[in-house]
Structure formats: C-alpha cells, structure tokens
From TrEMBL, chain A:
GO cellular-component term (any): plasma membrane
InterPro entries per UniProt: AAA+_ATPase, ABC_AA/LPS_Transport, ABC_transporter-like_ATP-bd, ABC_transporter-like_CS, BCA_ABC_TP_C, P-loop_NTPase
Species for this entry: Fertoeibacter niger
Start and end residues of each ABC transporter domain: 2-250
TM spans (from-to): none
Keyword ATP-binding tagged: yes
Keyword Transport: yes
Protein name as annotated: ABC transporter ATP-binding protein
UniProt keyword terms in alphabetical order: ATP-binding, Nucleotide-binding, Transport
Gene Ontology MF term list: ATP binding; ATP hydrolysis activity
CDD domains: ABC_Mj1267_LivG_branched
Automatic annotation (TrEMBL), chain B:
Any one Gene Ontology BP term: D-alanine transmembrane transport
Chain segments annotated as transmembrane: 20-39, 51-74, 80-100, 112-132, 162-186, 215-236, 312-331
Keyword Transmembrane helix in annotation: yes
Single GO MF descriptor: L-phenylalanine transmembrane transporter activity
Coiled-coil spans in chain: none
Cellular component aspect of the GO annotation: plasma membrane
Any Pfam family: BPD_transp_2
Protein's UniProt name: Branched-chain amino acid ABC transporter permease
Amino acid sequence: MIVVEDLHKHFGGFHAVDGASLEIGAGSITGLIGPNGAGKTTLFNVIAGRLKPTSGRVLMAGEDITGLAPHDLFHKGLLRTFQIAHEFGSMTVRENLMMVPSAQSGETLWNAWFRRGAVAAEERAIRDKADEVLEFLTISHLADERAANISGGQKKLLELGRTMMVDAKIVFLDEVGAGVNRTLLNTIGDAIRRLNTERGYTFCVIEHDMDFIGSLCNPVICMAEGRVLAQGTVDEVKNDERVIEAYLGTGLKNKVVAHG
Amino acid sequence: MDILNALVAFANFVFVPGLAYGAQIALGALGATLIYGILRFSNFAHGDTMALGTTFAILVTWGFQALGITFGFLPTALLALPFAIIMTAAFVLGTDRVVYRFYRRQKAAPTILVIVSLGVMFIMNGLNRFIIGVGEINFADGARFVITAGDFRAMTGLTEGLAIKATQAITVVTAVIVVGLLFWFLQKTRTGKSMRAFSDNEDLALLSGINPDRVVQVTWIIAAGLATIAGVLYGLDKSFKAFTYFQLLLPIFAAAVVGGLGNPLGAIAGGFIVAFSEVMVTYAWKKVLTYLVPESMAPDGLVQLMSTDYKFAVSFTILIIVLLFLPTGIFKGKSA
C-alpha cells in the first residue's frame, strides 16, 4: 500500500529521518515503534504531506505521492491523526465529524442558495453518519458538546471517528493510546480492528504500549535514529538484539536478555 | 426638567451618529478580524483597502452619473458598490498572489506578515492618492435626509429636532444586511464552515481535505467586500478623503481587539463600543444637561470631556485598558 524509499528529512544538521525504507502492506495493521526521537512522528509528517522530505520517495499503491499537500492526500484516502489530539474547538463534536466529508454540494454558493432541498438531504445523510460514528465510538452523549471541552481521551476517539467519516484507504495513527485509560484503549483497539476487517482500512500505528501493539499489530517495524532497525512479528522485534540495544543501551542489554 | 427634549438631543447628537459610525467601524473590524483569524496576521493595509475600494466606487459612480444613471432617492454609489467590490477583490487577490503568498509559503511569522502588510499599506496609499488625489470628495447624491430637524420639530412640537441623514439610515440598514449574510455564510455554508475550521485549527483543516488556497482566496474576497462596503458607507456619511481611511485603522483595530481578534461577533460589539465611546467622550453635553437639571444648575461650560481633536486618543485608551485587563477581548479571541 505504502512504500517508503530511502527517505531523509533533515532539520539543519539534525537528521530526524535518515534513510528510512519500509513497506506497509495493504490490509495490514502495521505497528511502528522505537524510542523517543527515533523519527516516527517526523516520518508520519513527511508521508502525510505536512513536511517535505529532504530526499527520498513515498509511493502509495505504486503512485509517487512524495510532497503532495495534506488535502490532496486526504482525497487519495490517506488520513492521519495527531499525537496530541487536534480538534475544531469552537464547533460541536458532531460538527467536527461533519466537517470531514468533502466535495459536498453545499460547497458552492449557487447550491447553497438555490438547491436548498438537495443540500439539506445531503446534510442529513452526513449527520446520520456522524451519529452512527459517535455511537460506534460510544460517545453519542457528547454530540452537542463543544469539542474544546471534551477530555483528552475523548478527543482521541474523535480523531479516530474523523477517519470513519470517509472511505479511507490508509490511516496513520500517531500515539492513539497516549493518555488514554485501559478501557478506552480497548475500545479504540476494537474500533481499529473492526475498521480493518469490515471496511478494509490499512493502519499504521505509532504506539509505546507494547501490549496494545502486541494484540493489534502485525507486522511491527522498529525505528531508531531515523532508520528502520527491525521488522517482523511483535515477538521477533521484541527479541531482536538491536532493538533492545536501541531502547536500553548496550549496558543494560545482558541483564534484560537474562531476565527474559 | 425636560426629559423629552434631552432624549431627542441625545438621540440627535450621540445615538444616531454613534450608531452609524459604529456600523462603519464594525464592518471594517469584521474584515480585519477575519483576516486575523484565518491568515493569522493583523492586516495594516485594511484601512487603505477601504480607501481603495471607495475610490473604485467613486470612479464607477462618476461613470454612472456621466451616463445619466442614478439610483432614485438612494445614492448612486450603492449601485456602483458591486463593481467596486469586484475591482477591490481582484486587486487584493493580486496583492496576495504577488506578496503574501510568498511569505505564506515561507511560513513567515505573524510579525513579519504585519510588517509586510505595512509595506502593502504604503503602496496602496500612494496608489490611491495617485488615482484620485488628496482632496475632499463628496459623492453622496440622492435624498439628503430621511427626516430633517425642522420636520421633526413641526411633527412633535419639541424645541429639539432629530435629523436622520439618508446616509446614516443606509449605513445601518446595509450593515445589518451584510452582517446577516456574513453570519449565515459562516454558519451554514460548507465554505464558511471550512473557514471557521481553518481558523480553529489549520493543521487539522488541511487533513480534513480542506484546500487552504481556496479558503485564503475566499477570505480575501470577503475582506475586500467588507472593506469596500465599510469605506463607501463612511465616505457617503462623512466625505471621502484618502488620508482619513488610514486613520480609521486605529478605531478598527481597537474594535477588533476589544471584541477579541478573530471573533466576528466580537468585532461588531467592539465597533459599537469604540464608536459610542468616541462620540460620547467628545460630545459637549451642555445641551442635554441643561434640559435635565434645574435652570439654576445649568452648566456654564460645554461639559465636553475631550476636544474632538482627541477622538483617536479614545481608541488608544480603550485598546490599552482592554489589553491590560482582558487581553483576549470580550468574546475571547485568539490574541493573547
């Protein structure tokens, strides 16, 4: 689905992504792990068009999408969420979801003025869909709340809900579980799995919670210092010496391995 | 004690002029606040955008008058307004294309954009003086008064008269219509919602498939429209002079900041707060007071808090007070 070829992103002398190459298979839930500062989020930002790469290519289903603007990528079915949840604070939770589906006929003034009926019907359909998504995420009771007022965890759900308003092909989730309690995390995990099986979404998930990654993702890719270190099933990656070294440094390696 | 006459005097010298002036400031502040909310900088060229828009309106008005086209009892300038808006919008879009877009691509800091807009302001100011000159131009035609002081006196038998100029009535009516349309647009249409979304959270808006170029264009067009309407209404009400619009920048930004930069509702409230403060502080209250207090206590002086020469000081004072005690404005805008 997504192929990243020798991607570099330098901020001055700092090489945040330093020759990363990886592949995200269609229909997979790929986990992306790595210690802080490994370049995971920067990689997301480059793939999702927020940052332009210094060099390298990103391919989506064989098509070169390197450096396309975020809104163009959205129309190609590539969506992402943020590490720190973003929302349209002055709008209600439902309105936040209703913002997503683009190219509605309300878009032109002509339609808004002269084809009220058609626009209203479409608006109703989107509204129903938003309510459906809210129900799916178990936050129906927040529909009319201003998005700025809901909790951090609920904002994470809203982020996920946003990707459900359109038919996405691939969704990049940046620490969707950060600051979210167990129960909510399970809800999010279930939602991801259902979207994956029922609607064929491909996911790429950055996450630090190894239990969450372990139960959800296959394969898992580990990054460190801007490069891909290892790739495989959770257990393969967990037991990879280079991965342990990257997380803990060489000094602690033997200890951890000894304790299993 | 003569409360009725006092009220009429108050309405005639404070309320009606304040309302018309407030509506003009509010329309100007709306444009400035929209640009702040969406493009994220204080556009110092907004006053001169108003001036340029008015210049275009005057030129078209003269054209119509030369062709013998008038708008009945309404000023011909209202007929010229749509053309002037299109011309101003085209000019502003051109400016964005040539100047602002470059800085947007560089992701320039808001402070840099403010200084850039200062440069644009000087260019527009010069261009405007080059086109229409610096002299005072009166381009209001059509009916002069909705009601004259004399008519009012004859009607009511009061000593005080209440005059409502046609331009004042037109200003208020137009402002109400324009504000209504703008809020409908922002609340109900998809493009309006995109603009609000973009103002709330630019990153997220981009990821929701909102095309930033389109939002920016629509914002400039609306701001140009509001500026032209505000400028023409002000010019009809007072008279047109290239320099006065440059000075209007102060009350306009005071209004936008008072209401909370980036908040359209705040801009309107701020407009009226600034306008009424200005009018009330510089009005000589002698006449109103004379009606209200017993004759023996009638004031000898003018009871004017400040000379009209200081009217811009009022905006400054409001600006400082608000920034000290309510930095985000009454309606909680974006500025901090």
